[in-house]
């Protein structure tokens, strides 16, 4: 009975690691305290998997911050600015790289493939002196062994490690990261030797970059690397694990011919085409680790269907060579359903978090071996059936309305420049109009108010009065600052997706469904389980209340459909675009109600539009088409005089600029100040942008207060590239995480800069 788990969440069922880390960072607990929490988490996970019956249990899947940073530590590739002097890397150096310290900023962080997890990007150059500087993988293997659990240690594979790195600052363009392969392999060999000596019989190399679009040089690097490792690896079983998509045909050929490799792991949930490749040929005598249990979602597996897939595969690779596995590390799903006592019973029966997925993997493996747990399978079948037929999932009117959208286009009737003229007549804004992105500082007091209201410790009347009071303060402040287009400050919102999810039907919420985003940070995505509709207006009351307090235009503030989709756990029983269209229709209703209530400017945030971009280029067009279409659906019905804004907090737009233009918003505000003008270069290169655009003039992620001159200088640089009449002046993103002591002077300088430049035009 062969079962395997690619990796497991580190945070703990109640975010124990988060709290231990943060307390250690704050100097409130010792390194030993932190190590104790970590060791307890690891041992409980190993025991749980062993008790369940999992054969190939992973180790080194734990991390104090990030597995790529762990690999950087293993290789001793510490950038010189952290002043590391050799020896085993300790918490000091490790956390300085992760988070920066008083004198040096952190290393860059970026998204791990198309997940919401972020890794620390290695900075490499020809000068890096690699050395074996973290024995974590070996230590964890030994630690598990001492607890009586023989594990499969996991390493980020050498080629993926290099492909996920970036050249260090100042390294010449001619430098190729892959040229470092020969320098890092000796360290990998040392690790492998130690693992062998410690008694390991399997080792797993994660090489997820194999699912990307790789040219032949890059593919070649895999053959080179594993040939070089072959003799060291001999005597060990070697698994190369891929995930997040199917492995392209060429990569599959390279992968399955790697020397010294015993098994190959594939994501069979997202990588459905891989199945055909396997059917077309799989090397004899090798193990297939079949990732049929979804590590990216929270749905219970359809065990009957997985079993039949597995039986098909068994016929190809042989009974003793098939291993049931997860599609990827379970770190991308929530930890344990046990901690959701309040979740509706029926919905709960449709779900499986990491702990439950481990049980599913095991049940499938047992069934393949002829020991099917009939009771477990029939309970699962009943839950699958109830999910298919439950009236809470299906809303026929919504299905029909969403189906009717497909194939047809939705655009506002008038073109953007005519619309902007009509809006200007109504709004009468100065040139270089100023605005903010939506949220204002969320004080402790505000959080207390929301918490007490939610816990029913505060009456509705008291709550409304408190929020109104806050809105009034925010409105007054903006008037004093002389900002042109105001916001209400979003004091009633805890989170820009949760706020809407709670009011839309088809969404469920967990108490502990946390997923690591980076370091100690976790997110708790809502679960979209059914057809989405909007029973009643969601923001109209607050927006009209705010508008009644000022004669200046007040922006209605909504989260767009693509962002709601990308930041939720999404249904797997219909394509993503269908769910997105449903959300778009719900937001459309809200947009139209806001317009009817007299709100003339409406911002529809699409902070996460780029995030959903598929890993492979061949799939980009399809995604962008439906994502942009969904956005347009939300506002295609408004009058010319209603100004639609959108906001995106991501600076890499250049590759999707045409899709952004195609969103056909009247004004877009975007993050810009941290991206070294990358954004502006698009326009410099001649892309014409006719709509209003507000590239952020200062970074809200830092407490630093920008001076008027500095902001004016930024605006001037923009004016050199963009036409004066389309430029807006605004910060990079919402101000929710900042303090008033920072926000007031920063916005005051921003407005002063805009006014200064107006006099010079
Ligand atoms: N309107 C939101 C805010 O200001 C936008 C946040 C975001 O883009 N992430 O907080
Ligand atoms: Zn933003």
TrEMBL record:
GO BP: any one term: methylation
Stored Gene3D superfamilies: 3.20.20.210
Any one Pfam family match given in the protein's UniProt record, by short name: Meth_synt_1
Gene Ontology molecular function, alphabetical: 5-methyltetrahydropteroyltriglutamate-homocysteine S-methyltransferase activity; methionine synthase activity; zinc ion binding
PANTHER family: 5-METHYLTETRAHYDROPTEROYLTRIGLUTAMATE--HOMOCYSTEINE METHYLTRANSFERASE
Name of the molecule in the record: 5-methyltetrahydropteroyltriglutamate-- homocysteine methyltransferase-like
Gene this chain is encoded by: LOC116195725
């Amino acid at each position: 009975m062969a079962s395997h788990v690619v990796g497991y969440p580190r945070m703990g069922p109640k975010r124990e690691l988060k709290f231990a880390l943060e307390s250690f960072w704050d100097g409130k607990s010792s390194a030993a305290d932190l190590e104790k929490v970590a060791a307890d988490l690891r041992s409980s996970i190993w025991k749980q998997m062993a008790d369940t019956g999992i054969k190939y249990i992973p180790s080194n899947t734990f991390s104090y911050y990030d597995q790529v940073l762990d690999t950087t530590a293993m290789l001793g590739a510490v950038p010189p600015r952290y002043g590391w002097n050799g020896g085993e890397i300790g918490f000091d150096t490790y956390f300085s790289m992760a988070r920066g310290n008083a004198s040096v900023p952190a290393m860059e962080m970026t998204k791990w493939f198309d997940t919401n997890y972020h890794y620390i990007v290695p900075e490499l150059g020809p000068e890096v002196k690699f050395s074996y500087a973290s024995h974590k993988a070996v230590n964890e293997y030994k630690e598990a062994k001492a607890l009586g659990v023989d594990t499969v240690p996991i390493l980020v594979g050498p080629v993926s490690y290099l492909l996920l790195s970036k050249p260090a600052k100042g390294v010449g363009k001619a430098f190729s990261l892959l040229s470092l392969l020969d320098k890092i392999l000796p360290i990998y060999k040392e690790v492998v030797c130690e693992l062998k000596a410690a008694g390991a019989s399997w080792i797993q190399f994660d090489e997820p970059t194999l699912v990307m679009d790789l040219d032949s040089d890059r593919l070649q690097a895999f053959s080179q690397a594993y040939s070089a490792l072959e003799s060291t690896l001999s005597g060990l079983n070697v698994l190369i694990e891929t995930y997040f998509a199917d492995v392209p045909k060429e990569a599959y050929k390279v992968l399955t011919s790697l020397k010294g490799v015993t098994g190959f792991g594939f994501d069979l949930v997202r990588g459905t085409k891989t199945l055909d490749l396997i059917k077309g040929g799989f090397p004899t005598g090798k193990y297939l680790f079949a990732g049929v249990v979804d590590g990216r979602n929270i749905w219970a597996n359809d065990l009957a269907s997985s079993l039949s897939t597995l039986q098909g595969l068994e016929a190809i690779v042989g009974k003793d060579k098939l291993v049931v596995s997860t599609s990827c590390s379970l770190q991308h799903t929530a930890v344990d359903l046990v901690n959701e006592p309040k979740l509706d019973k029926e919905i709960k029966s449709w779900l499986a978090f990491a702990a439950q997925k481990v049980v599913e993997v095991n049940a499938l493996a047992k069934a393949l071996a002829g020991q099917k747990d009939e009771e477990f399978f029939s309970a699962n079948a009943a839950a699958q059936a109830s999910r298919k037929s439950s009236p809470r999932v299906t809303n026929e009117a919504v299905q029909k309305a969403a189906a009717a959208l497909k194939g047809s286009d939705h655009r506002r009737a008038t073109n953007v420049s005519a619309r902007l003229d009509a809006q200007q007549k109504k709004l009468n804004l100065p040139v270089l109009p100023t605005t903010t992105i939506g949220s204002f500082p969320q004080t402790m007091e505000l959080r207390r108010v929301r918490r007490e209201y939610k816990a029913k410790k505060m009456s509705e009347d008291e709550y409304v009065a408190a929020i109104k009071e806050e809105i009034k303060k925010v409105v007054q402040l903006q008037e004093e600052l002389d900002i042109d287009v105001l916001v209400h400050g979003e004091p009633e919102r805890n989170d820009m997706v949760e706020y809407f999810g709670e009011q839309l039907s088809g969404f469920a919420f967990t108490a502990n469904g946390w997923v690591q985003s980076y370091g100690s940070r976790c997110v708790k995505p809502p679960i979209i389980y059914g057809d989405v509709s909007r029973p009643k207006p969601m923001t109209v009351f607050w927006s009209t209340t705010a508008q009644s307090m000022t004669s200046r235009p007040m922006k209605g503030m909504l989260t767009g459909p693509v962002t709601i989709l990308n930041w939720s756990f999404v249904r797997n029983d219909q394509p993503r675009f269908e769910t997105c269209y449903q959300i778009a229709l719900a937001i459309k209703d809200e947009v139209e109600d806001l317009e009817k209530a007299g709100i003339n400017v409406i911002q529809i945030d699409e902070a996460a539009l780029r995030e959903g971009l598929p890993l492979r280029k061949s799939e980009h067009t399809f995604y962008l088409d439906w994502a942009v279409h969904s956005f347009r659906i939300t506002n295609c019905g408004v009058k010319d005089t209603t100004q639609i804004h959108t906001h995106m907090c991501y600076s890499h737009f250049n590759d999707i600029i045409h899709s952004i233009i195609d969103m056909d918003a009247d004004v877009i505000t975007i993050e810009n100040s941290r991206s070294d003008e990358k954004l502006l270069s698009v326009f410099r290169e001649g892309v014409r942008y006719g709509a209003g655009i507000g590239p952020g003039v200062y970074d809200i992620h830092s407490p630093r207060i920008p001076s008027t001159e500095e902001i004016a200088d930024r605006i001037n640089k923009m004016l050199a590239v963009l036409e004066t009449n389309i430029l807006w002046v605004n910060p990079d993103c919402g101000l929710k995480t900042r303090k008033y002591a920072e926000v007031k002077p920063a916005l005051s300088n921003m407005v002063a800069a805009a006014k200064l430049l107006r006099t010079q035009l």
